[in-house]
Amino acid sequence: MSVRNLPPLVGALVFVVAAAQAEPVTYAGKIGSADIVVEFTSDPSASDGPLAGRYFYRSQGVDIPLQARPRKGRRFELAQEEVCGAEQCGNGQAAPVAAIWRLASADKGKTLEGTWNGKKTRPVKLTRISAREQTQTPASRPFDLHDFTETKFFGDDAPITMEASPYDYLRLDFAPKVGNKAGWPDASYSYVVDPRTKFAMPRIVELSGETSAEAANALLQNRHWHASLDALNCAALRYAGFYEGSPVATTDDGTLGGYEDSTSEVTSLTPQLMSWRESGSLFCGGAYPNNFSAAYTMDIRRGALLGLQDMFTDTVNGKPGPSLIAFVDKRRKKRTEPTDAGFEAECGTDELIGEYLAASVKRDGDTQRLVFGLQSLPHAIQVCGGDFLELPAADASALLKPEFARLLGQL
């Protein structure tokens, strides 16, 4: 679904959710001519108490806090925060107000109308989209809404849907820029970019035969959406209202946390199997940046990631077993120069293989090659990671699980 099709979506969804049973509530509409999406802490048509909220401009996607103000019947106000990081608001100071929203509900809460009063005054008109289930602790502040997103969608698995969070779904359902098609005669892909978060991730374009790319592209989109959401959440931390306490220096600069410079590279694609590598350096608070370079392999038909245990017969609890360790260790190129040998000894590469071995696939013409390396290492020894062995998949045929061998074209 494209963001450009929002008006029909609005009409279709206004009546889907049972009235006032689940909250917070999401509305979509405009400030002046700018498209926005707003989430309120409770239903404006059903609540007698103060309302708080958050909103984003579709062209930007970054949360902006809306603090509660006293309300009078169906009319209510919100105070939109100005940017205020640790330097100005680090000791509990209230953030300055950028604008006052004055709204009134109509048509039993299906629409909200009013004004946005900042440096200029602009009309606001919003249409109810949907509500989501309340969290265990009811939301009362912009922080609670922002924290819901971070908690609900932490990691790469939870699907971002209209049912789970209409606000976040509409934030991410943004028309991407699509790059040129690349790949092989029987399987092609392109990279797509959300222009607001700037980094590219792949989508499958065409596959020969009867294999559908639908499940695989759903997984790729979900990973892309999660990364974009993390980037946008990081950028929102320039607002004091999205902290439990005071803003923290180094997390309040409004950047995308390094996501904009992260990369994704497809290394293999066939009608059965896909491998790609994601790399970058991310920082949105904490003791140190998250430097990462991780390879992924996917069964295209199922749209499922494959771990070491899905590829090789000799694994124990997802770790390599003795024969797989011996196979890799015998064939890998070991560092012999004194400096390199010392580095390898200090890393303890032989021991790390038993704990952090990973495998992916590289396509060379019509040949599939297995690539082995170390990934997901602790921060203190990340420098010890990387690939150290590449060989034709046929050379490891005795160790392959039958289904993985079929996906590789070895059966």
Describe this structure in words.
With 411 residues, this protein is an alpha+beta fold. It has three domains: 3-172, Lipocalin (Beta Barrel), CATH 2.40.128; 176-305, Heat Shock Protein 90; 308-411. It is 22% helix and 33% strand. The chain has helices spanning 6-13, 86-89, 142-152, 166-172, 214-235, 308-311, 322-331, 338-347, 349-356, 402-408, and strands at residues 25-31, 34-40, 53-57, 64-68, 75-81, 97-106, 111-117, 121-131, 177-178, 182-184, 187-193, 200-207, 263-269, 273-282, 290-299, 304-305, 315-316, 319-320, 357-364, 367-374, 386-392. The strands form five sheets. It has an eight-stranded antiparallel barrel with strand order 1-2-3-4-5-6-7-8. Strands 9, 10, 11 and 12 form a four-stranded antiparallel sheet that branches. Strands 13-14-15-16 form a four-stranded antiparallel sheet. Strand 10 and strand 11 (187-193) form a beta hairpin. The longest helix is centred in the middle third of the chain and has 22 residues, at 214-235. The two termini are 39 Å apart. Residues 1-22 have low confidence and may be disordered.
Question: Which short descriptors sum up this protein?
Answer:
411 residues, alpha+beta, Lipocalin, Heat Shock Protein 90, eight-stranded antiparallel β-barrel, four-stranded antiparallel sheet, 10 helices, 21 strands, 33% strand
Number of domains: 3
Q: Sum up the overall morphology in one term.
A: elongated
The termini sit apart by 39 Å
Give average pLDDT, whole number.
Answer: 91
Helix content: 10-25%
> At the fourth CATH level, what is the homologous superfamily of the largest domain?
Avidin-like
Helical/strand content category: alpha+beta
Gyration radius, to the nearest Å?
25 Å
How many beta-strand elements?
Answer: 21
Low confidence ranges: 1-22
Quote the beta fraction: 25-35%
Q: Which architecture name of the largest domain does CATH use?
A: Beta Barrel
Question: How does the major sheet shape up?
Answer: 8 strands, antiparallel, barrel
- The name of the CATH topology of the largest domain is Lipocalin
**Largest sheet, order of strands side by side?**
1-2-3-4-5-6-7-8
Q: Determine and state the CATH class of the largest domain.
A: Mainly Beta
DSSP helical segment count: 10
